[in-house]
Design brief:
The protein has seven helices and no strands. The protein is an all-alpha fold. Helix 1 crosses helix 3, helix 2 runs antiparallel to helix 3 and helix 5 packs across helix 6.
Length: 149
């Protein structure tokens, strides 16, 4: 089931990507994120609108990576994987000393580190899926399970 925040976030990103200049799109994505994160500290708006505003940044970054740098997912050299692992590990370690990041609660106690850690972890998961897909011993059973479930 899809939450109202997800639907609203996708709607906002569709509006943002209509702008032709990348710096305007990027600024709007950061403004939406800041609005969602800052207003959630003081008031909780209905229909998960604040979590939708926070999700806009993540959706927009994914869209830009797919659009402009589609090869970034295809090329996973050791340094990019190591760098993402380090960022994710630092963000994970920082979350042990603070409360955990949560888009639903609009909680980002470590600020930029939480956002970068989430993006790095997402990239690592995509890379892992690409590598698993190359191994036939994993590919066929997982494909079968995906069809029956």
């Amino acid at each position: 089931m899809v939450s109202a925040g997800t639907v609203l976030g996708i709607h906002f990103v569709k509006k943002i990507i209509k702008f032709s200049k990348i710096y305007i799109r990027t600024a709007l994505a950061f403004i939406c994120f800041a609005f969602g994160a800052l207003t959630a500290k003081y008031v909780w708006l209905p229909s998960s609108i604040q979590s939708a505003f926070c999700a806009v940044l993540f959706l927009y970054v994914g869209w830009e990576l797919k659009k402009k740098w589609n090869g970034i997912f295809a090329t996973g050299n050791r340094w990019s994987i190591l760098g993402c692992l380090m960022v994710w590990f630092i963000a994970l370690t920082a979350s042990f000393t603070n409360t955990n990041m949560s888009i639903v609660r609009c909680a980002f106690p470590n600020g930029v580190l939480d956002v970068l850690g989430a993006i790095a972890a997402s990239w690592l998961i995509v890379r892992l899926c690409i590598e698993i897909e190359k191994v036939t011993a994993f590919k066929k059973p997982l494909s079968f399970l995906g069809k029956i479930l």
